[in-house]
From TrEMBL:
<dbReference type="InterPro" id="IPR008925">
    <property type="entry name" value="aa_tRNA-synth_I_cd-bd_sf"/>
</dbReference>
<dbReference type="InterPro" id="IPR001412">
    <property type="entry name" value="aa-tRNA-synth_I_CS"/>
</dbReference>
<dbReference type="GO" id="GO:0005524">
    <property type="term" value="F:ATP binding"/>
</dbReference>
<dbReference type="GO" id="GO:0000049">
    <property type="term" value="F:tRNA binding"/>
</dbReference>
<comment type="similarity">
    <text>Belongs to the class-I aminoacyl-tRNA synthetase family.</text>
</comment>
<dbReference type="GO" id="GO:0006430">
    <property type="term" value="P:lysyl-tRNA aminoacylation"/>
</dbReference>
<dbReference type="InterPro" id="IPR042078">
    <property type="entry name" value="Lys-tRNA-ligase_SC_fold"/>
</dbReference>
<dbReference type="InterPro" id="IPR002904">
    <property type="entry name" value="Lys-tRNA-ligase"/>
</dbReference>
<keyword id="KW-0648">Protein biosynthesis</keyword>
<feature type="short sequence motif" description="'KMSKS' region">
    <location>
        <begin position="276"/>
        <end position="280"/>
    </location>
</feature>
<feature type="short sequence motif" description="'HIGH' region">
    <location>
        <begin position="30"/>
        <end position="38"/>
    </location>
</feature>
<dbReference type="GO" id="GO:0004824">
    <property type="term" value="F:lysine-tRNA ligase activity"/>
</dbReference>
<dbReference type="InterPro" id="IPR014729">
    <property type="entry name" value="Rossmann-like_a/b/a_fold"/>
</dbReference>
<dbReference type="Pfam" id="PF01921">
    <property type="entry name" value="tRNA-synt_1f"/>
</dbReference>
<dbReference type="InterPro" id="IPR020751">
    <property type="entry name" value="aa-tRNA-synth_I_codon-bd_sub2"/>
</dbReference>
<keyword id="KW-0547">Nucleotide-binding</keyword>
<protein>
    <recommendedName>
        <fullName>Lysine--tRNA ligase</fullName>
        <ecNumber>6.1.1.6</ecNumber>
    </recommendedName>
</protein>
Length: 527
């Protein structure tokens, strides 16, 4: 059977046909919360970068924040005071919390911290600094001089005719500060200035250095030439027929004299049943929030295991536990194929904690202990797990606590009742006999682990099983009861509800003496 090559290695092999020196670029506009959907771009870029390094390529990874893009509208997470800033570059707008240097920085800083935790450490470029430093000056002059040729390319490729007053450069009005309401009237190549008029009524002259920016379809290929980008992932919207990559290829070759980068086109990450994540619509789960909930490697795994051209459905509620389970299994076994091992390798983020405690088990332990870490450690030790690395156990407990607070569905939550729940009055005689017998057996037993409890409970329904024999003695008749009713008796006695977490793990998380006392109390309860 032929081994499947991981998609990142396929990208690396294709890219290396163009040479051994490469610059992998990724970029996102920090106009709002940078979310898990955006993470696909940066993790995809990092995977390609790592695959190139593994082949001894001379490779670099950069991240470009489009901080000079205008604020498009007052998003749902902004107050109405931002109406006056619509149209201004993000880097020139006040920070929403008042603690960052500008609007773009407010959303960018948490994202950059998240990147570090994901094991992604690119060189960071800010678009406003690139423009203000003069890096774009030659590109701006070239684009203005070849304005008509660019307009022709845009029409031929996209099918849309730029207006007579269209310009590849958008000046920033010195009066109102907006970048999307101005029109270029002339430019001086030698002085590197641009004359403009603005819909606010103001006219003036701005320097090419920081006085505006190229329109997106021209800015992107100019950036490829300025920075030397050779590989770049981007969303399927840019890759559509006549889209910005199609026009960018022509503009790169015919206007700026460079080759466009090797494309890695990716599909969207869908949030549960709500559709594609988008900051502008508020359909988001921020990367920073998710890193409070799961280890960084799980988020990398979400992206790494799926080909970029396939969409990913992500749900931070109950389905997240399945994702964590799958990663934990891969981490523990190392995978059964070369492909699995490569997925594990590319999912790795350095300096992370690891414990042998399953995330799902910790959701039970955390709730039994009511979040008290000293009690969590005692339960972990009783369950037979290694407790030497308390820092890693604390990190896992914190992740689980945040998941329970932020995303866990109601049915995943429970609380061990301090007093016998009133619902114990509904227990049948057979359920009472089961609890009595279980308490007797526990009293005679040594300390049990989750597997022991699981087998013990199931022995109640099996003829010849330990509990089955004992219950027939108690009842004085043949004992028949379904496993559902057995578990229901346990959960009613302890939680005051008909269902609960996986019984073996759950029971092993509680003190044996407490269980014996509670089961006898429930069996004897007659209101």
């Amino acid at each position: 059977m032929t081994e499947i090559t991981h998609w990142a290695d396929v990208v690396a092999e294709e890219t290396l046909e163009r040479g051994n020196t490469h610059l992998v670029a990724t970029g996102i506009t920090p106009s709002g919360h940078i979310h898990v959907g955006n993470m696909r771009e940066v993790v995809t870029a990092d995977a390609a970068y790592r695959a190139l390094l593994d082949r001894d390529a001379n490779a670099e990874l950069i991240y470009i924040a489009d901080t000079y893009d205008p604020l498009r509208k007052v998003y749902p997470f902004l107050d109405e005071s931002y109406e006056e800033h619509v149209g201004k570059p993000l880097s020139e707008i006040p920070c929403p919390c008042g603690e960052c240097k500008n609007y773009a920085d407010h959303f960018l800083q948490p994202f950059l911290k998240s990147l570090h935790r994901l094991g992604i450490k690119p060189e960071v470029y800010l678009a406003d600094e690139l423009y203000k430093s003069g890096r774009y000056n030659e590109g701006i002059k070239t684009a203005l001089k070849k304005r008509d040729k660019i307009a022709a390319i845009l029409k031929e490729v996209s099918g849309r005719q730029p207006g007579d007053d269209w310009s590849p450069f958008n000046p920033i009005c010195m009066q109102c500060g907006k970048i999307n309401t101005t029109r270029v009237t002339s430019f001086d190549e030698r002085e590197e200035t641009v004359d403009y008029t603005c819909s606010c009524g103001h006219s003036g002259t701005v320097p090419m250095q920081g006085g505006g920016k190229l329109t997106w379809r021209v800015d992107w290929p100019a950036r490829w030439q300025i920075l030397g980008v050779t590989v770049e992932p981007f969303g399927k919207d840019h890759a559509s027929r006549g889209g910005s990559y199609d026009t960018g290829k022509r503009i790169a070759r015919e206007i700026f004299g460079c080759e466009p980068p090797h494309p890695i086109v990716y599909e969207w990450i869908m949030l549960g049943k709500e559709g594609a994540m988008s900051s502008s619509t508020g359909v988001v789960v921020s990367i920073a929030d998710m890193l409070k909930v799961v280890p960084p490697e799980v988020l990398r795994y979400l992206i790494i295991r799926t080909k970029p051209e396939k969409h990913i459905r992500f749900d931070p509620a109950q389905p997240l536990l399945t994702l964590v389970d799958q990663y934990e299994k891969l981490h523990q076994t190392g995978g059964t194929s070369e492909y699995d091992r490569r997925v594990k390798e590319l999912s790795h983020a350095s300096g992370l904690c690891h414990t042998d405690i399953p995330f799902k088990h910790m959701t039970t332990i955390h709730q039994v202990a009511h979040g008290d870490f000293d009690r969590i450690l005692k339960i972990v030790e009783r369950a037979g797990y290694d407790t030497k690395n308390t820092e890693c156990i604390k990190q896992l407990a914190d992740n689980v606590g945040n998941w329970l607070d932020m995303y866990a569905p109601p049915f995943a939550k429970f609380s061990v009742q301090e007093k016998l729940p009133e619902l114990a009055a509904t227990l049948s005689d057979k359920q009472r006999a089961f609890l009595t017998t279980l308490a007797d057996v526990l009293e005679e037993s040594a300390e049990l682990d989750g597997s022991d409890y699981h087998n013990l409970v199931y022995s109640a329904k099996e003829e010849g099983g330990r509990l089955h024999r004992e219950m027939e003695k108690v009842l004085g008749e043949e004992f028949t009861i379904g496993p559902k009713d057995l578990f229901k008796a346990l959960y009613i006695s302890l939680l005051g509800q008909a269902s609960g977490p996986k019984a073996g793990w759950f029971l092993s998380s509680l003190e044996k003496d407490f269980l014996i006392k509670r089961f006898r109390e429930a069996a004897a309860y007659r209101p």
